[in-house]
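Deliverable D2.4 — example input (structure tokens):
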């Protein structure tokens, strides 16, 4: 008798969607890229790959696209640099890897995975993480690789607003993140998240995305990747809290994810969303912003892509 599980994958391209900025062209381009990322992961799952492989493959496609705030489309910090964060977790073994504040890694998710698989550590940062990359033969790119005109202009705008004091500096707008959760044919879950962080961030700021338990978490029951105002996701230990509610309280995935994203986080003053998946292939994708780039292939093998709330 076969115990094979039907694979499921869910991805997000960030909850920083601003409805009035969504032109038909942008909408079309984002949907096409989400479909590409989704298929990169799903095709691997169908061919028998692990959930970990699928998560990494889907995220690499989004990191290589200038449309998302991760890898090539990363936002700029206050000093005009790109600082990248990422993490990945294997639900079956609770192994995890993370990197923060790297400047020369084309695909941060692959370095996070290498930290998990090729080092005795969970998290490496900054120059040390890049030294580790070099030591395992991962090529470093020129930091200029990450430059995109759109993100540069977003930084100029943020600096201008800050100088004119026309926005509360504590309320830096966030610009997304990418992430994926997957269930493979062996019934194992994995989660991963990759980001450029928040425009105009400073002082070596690190958000939730590379923090295991905050922006990323996976165990045998539940996998979560978050996007949103990272400080609040860290304080709420959001990703782990969702999975802990499923584990300890027996909450359904939907209830657990809704209670954290629509209850705990906004109560603290934060916003954003998550994608979550359980071992039965149930999916939850709550968010409390205008929209969240999201796409999934469910237990029936059906593909869905959505951007704004209510889709
Ligand atoms: N969570 C990310 C961070 O705080 C940003 C985002 O998802 O919009 O770095």
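Example output (designed residues):
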């Amino acid at each position: 008798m076969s115990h094979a599980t039907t694979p499921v994958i869910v991805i997000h391209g960030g909850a920083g969607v601003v409805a009035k900025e969504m032109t038909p062209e942008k909408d079309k381009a984002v949907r096409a890229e989400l479909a590409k990322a989704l298929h990169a992961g799903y095709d691997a799952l169908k061919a028998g790959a692990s959930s970990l492989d699928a998560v990494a493959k889907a995220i690499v496609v989004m990191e290589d696209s200038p449309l998302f705030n991760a890898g090539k489309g990363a936002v700029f910090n206050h000093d005009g640099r790109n600082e990248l964060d990422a993490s990945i977790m294997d639900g079956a073994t609770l192994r995890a890897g993370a990197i923060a504040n790297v400047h020369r890694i084309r695909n941060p998710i692959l370095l996070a995975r290498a930290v998990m698989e090729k080092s005795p550590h969970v998290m490496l940062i900054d120059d040390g993480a890049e030294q580790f990359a070099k030591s395992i033969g991962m090529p470093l790119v020129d930091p200029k690789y990450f430059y995109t005109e759109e993100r540069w202009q977003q930084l100029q705008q943020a600096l201008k607003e800050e100088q004119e004091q026309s926005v509360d500096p504590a309320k830096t707008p966030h610009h997304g993140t990418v992430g994926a959760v997957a269930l493979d044919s062996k019934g194992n879950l994995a989660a991963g998240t990759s980001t450029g962080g928040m425009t105009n961030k400073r002082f070596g700021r690190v958000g939730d995305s590379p923090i295991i338990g905050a922006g990323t978490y996976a165990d045998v029951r539940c996998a979560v990747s978050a996007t949103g105002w990272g400080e609040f996701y860290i304080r709420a230990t959001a990703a782990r809290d969702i999975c802990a509610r499923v584990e300890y309280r027996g909450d359904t995935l939907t209830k657990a994810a809704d209670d954290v994203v629509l209850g705990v986080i906004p109560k603290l003053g934060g916003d954003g969303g998550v994608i979550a998946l359980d071992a039965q292939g149930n999916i939850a994708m709550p968010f409390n912003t205008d929209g969240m780039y999201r796409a999934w292939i469910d237990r029936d093998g059906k593909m869905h892509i959505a951007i704004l709330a209510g889709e």
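The longest strand covers residues 95-102.
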